[in-house]
């Protein structure tokens, strides 16, 4: 009897594991005649499809690539011609190898390829990422900007230095009036600044300002994480980053160190709405403090609870 119960429980938990892996729910948002946003598990994906074919911005996590491809095929059956990666994190480049092997040309800023070809150590994540296999690497790299002239518009990827990492791009679709921000914009939660990979808060502000200079009030903004945004959401994000930076700078000028500044809660007014999903207020303040001090790595706090993310 006991053994039977055990077996039943065992299979129940196995089923649960598979259910978790199968449970990726993709949601599709059509933003213009040709541009879509696809939410699944990992960074939000941008899709352009039309008379010239299909290309995508980012490709989420490696284990869900087959499911992702099915979700994309619901929008268009055409082969994927290009993938543009906004940055090198695993939740944005995970489909590269499979999609590249199927014939897509992988495109990214040169710093993405550099990081993907070498071991990456993250103090914040407390992990090490080995180099990617050759098939996952971008084969076309750019330095400043790159344009694709397809589906009735010239979509341009603009390199935005040292924000989320040192290799991010934002992609502007001028006819569709859409901007894909990659992880330079987290909508509705504090952003992750990957200090260990060349990120800084100042770079996030610069990228938001560049995007805002190309946007009007009806521009749809695809964030790396969080729900689809509008220009107003990006403006609010830029504004609270600037204000949080000023608050922390004031405390630095008063002679406080990082631990004292975290205790002073300089981001208090946003913590309840933005600091509960992933990045905590203490982590966010550390990103700002280290950015302002020019410290190019994350500083783990002595009392910090470890968070998975
Ligand atoms: Zn990222």
How would you describe this structure in keywords?
309 residues; alpha/beta; Metallo-beta-lactamase, Chain A; six-stranded mixed β-sheet; 10 helices; 15 strands
Give me the secondary-structure topology.
Layout: H1 2-22, E1 27-30, E2 35-39, E3 45-50, E4 53-57, H2 65-73, E5 80-84, H3 90-93, H4 96-101, E6 105-109, H5 110-116, E7 120-122, E8 127-129, E9 140-142, E10 145-150, E11 153-159, E12 169-173, E13 178-180, H6 201-214, E14 220-222, E15 229-230, H7 231-253, H8 258-263, H9 268-274, H10 281-293
Parallel strand pairs: 4-5, 5-6, 6-9, 13-14
Antiparallel strand pairs: 1-2, 2-3, 3-4, 7-8, 10-11, 11-12, 12-13, 14-15
Helix pairs in contact: 6-7, 7-10
Number of strands: 15
CATH superfamily: Ribonuclease Z/Hydroxyacylglutathione hydrolase-like
Instruction: Please give the oligomerization state of what you see.
Output: single chain
The figure for the number of domains is 1
Ligand species? zinc ion
How far is it from the N-terminal to the C-terminal residue, by CA?
40 Å
Query: What coarse outline follows from CA principal-axis ratios?
Result: globular
CATH top level is Alpha Beta
**Main sheet specs:** 7 strands, mixed
The appropriate CATH architecture is: 4-Layer Sandwich
Written as H for each helix and E for each strand, in order along the chain, the element string is: HEEEEHEHHEHEEEEEEEHEEHHHH
Biggest sheet strand line-up: 1-2-3-4-5-6-9
Tell me what portion of residues adopts beta-strand conformation. 15-25%
Structural class: alpha/beta
Mean pLDDT, all residues: 92
Low-confidence stretches: 1-20
Q: Helix count, per DSSP?
A: 10
Report Rg.
20 Å
CATH topology: Metallo-beta-lactamase, Chain A
Share of residues in helices: 25-40%
């Amino acid at each position: 009897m006991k053994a039977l119960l055990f077996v039943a429980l065992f299979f129940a938990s196995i089923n649960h594991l598979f259910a978790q892996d199968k449970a990726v729910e993709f949601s599709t948002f059509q933003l213009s005649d040709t541009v879509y946003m696809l939410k699944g598990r990992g960074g939000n994906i941008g899709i352009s499809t039309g008379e010239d074919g299909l290309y995508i911005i980012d490709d989420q996590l490696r284990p869900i690539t087959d499911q992702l491809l099915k979700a994309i095929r619901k929008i268009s059956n055409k082969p994927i011609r290009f993938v543009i990666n906004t940055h090198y994190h695993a939740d944005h480049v995970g489909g590269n190898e499979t999609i590249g092997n199927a014939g897509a040309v992988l495109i990214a800023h040169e710093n993405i390829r550099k990081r993907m070809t070498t071991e990456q150590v993250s103090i914040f994540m407390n992990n090490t990422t080995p180099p990617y296999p050759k098939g996952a690497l971008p084969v076309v790299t750019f330095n400043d900007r790159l344009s694709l002239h397809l589906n009735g518009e010239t979509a341009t990827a603009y390199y935005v230095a040292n924000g989320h990492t040192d290799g991010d791009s934002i992609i502007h679709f001028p006819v569709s009036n859409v901007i894909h921000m990659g992880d330079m914009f987290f909508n509705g939660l504090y952003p992750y600044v990957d200090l260990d990979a060349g990120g800084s808060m100042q770079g996030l502000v610069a990228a938001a300002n560049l995007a805002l200079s190309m946007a009007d009030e009806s521009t749809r903004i695809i964030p790396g994480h969080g729900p689809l945004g509008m220009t107003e959401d990006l403006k609010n994000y830029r504004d609270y980053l600037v204000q949080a930076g000023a608050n922390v700078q004031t405390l630095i000028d008063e002679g406080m160190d990082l631990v004292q500044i975290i205790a002073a809660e300089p981001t208090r007014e946003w913590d309840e709405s933005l600091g509960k999903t992933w990045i905590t207020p203490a982590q966010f303040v550390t990103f700002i403090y280290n950015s302002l001090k020019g410290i190019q790595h994350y500083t783990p706090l002595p009392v910090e609870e470890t968070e998975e993310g």
